[in-house]
């Protein structure tokens, strides 16, 4: 197979003999009184801490996906305030690549008796230092996004055209 744009051969996944495709994900940084809203979750038998985050679904905009993931994983309704950044994360064995669109959002309200996604233990609020000391972050992006937020990185929401 060759790229239509460059006429160069496309990179293929040698194991599956398929074209390489990154996973599109969305995430949110939600800070309130010096603490960040995070998700305590079980993934493949391991208890991990992550931002509210997940895969973009067919037909969703990035913002719609972020709002859905926050609601499904934390039981909070939030309002998007800004784009924090675009991130690339490769798993340690390089078998998967994730393209993460991370937003900054603020809490609107907590949904009473919200039904959270399977595997979610619940939302938790942690300081930056507590996150840095946690031995069970899902990925290095958890702390990197918090540090980027604290350093003042912000982009207008209309940076994304979808």
Structural class: alpha+beta
Number of helices: 3
- Counting structural domains, the number is 1
The coarse silhouette is globular
Describe what you observe in this structure:
The chain has 162 residues and is of the alpha+beta class. The chain has a single domain, classed as Alpha-Beta Complex (Nucleoside Triphosphate Pyrophosphohydrolase). Helix content is 18%, strand content 41%. It has three helices and nine strands; from the N terminus they run E-E-E-E-E-E-H-E-E-E-H-H. The chain has helices at residues 62-74, 128-133, 141-150; strands spanning 12-13, 18-19, 23-32, 35-43, 46-50, 53-55, 76-90, 97-110, 120-126. The strands form two sheets. Strands 3, 4, 5, 6, 7, 8 and 9 form a seven-stranded mixed β-sheet that branches. A two-stranded antiparallel sheet has the order 1-2. A hairpin with a 4-residue loop joins strand 1 and strand 2. The radius of gyration is 17 Å and the shape is globular. The relative contact order is 0.23.
């Amino acid at each position: 197979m060759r790229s239509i744009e460059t006429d160069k051969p496309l990179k293929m996944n040698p194991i599956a003999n398929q074209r390489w495709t990154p996973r599109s994900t969305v995430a949110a940084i939600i800070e309130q009184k010096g603490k960040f809203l995070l998700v305590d979750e079980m993934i493949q038998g391991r208890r991990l801490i992550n931002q509210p985050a997940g895969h973009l679904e067919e037909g969703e905009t990035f913002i719609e996906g972020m709002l859905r993931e926050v609601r499904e994983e934390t039981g909070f309704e939030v309002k998007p305030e800004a784009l924090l950044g675009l991130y690339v994360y490769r798993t340690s064995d390089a078998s998967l690549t994730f393209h993460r669109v991370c937003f900054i959002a603020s809490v609107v309200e907590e949904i009473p008796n919200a039904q959270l996604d399977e595997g979610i233990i619940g939302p938790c609020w942690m300081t930056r230092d507590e996150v840095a000391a946690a031995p069970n972050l899902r990925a290095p992006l958890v702390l990197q996004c918090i540090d980027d937020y604290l350093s003042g990185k912000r982009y207008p929401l209309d940076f994304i055209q979808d």
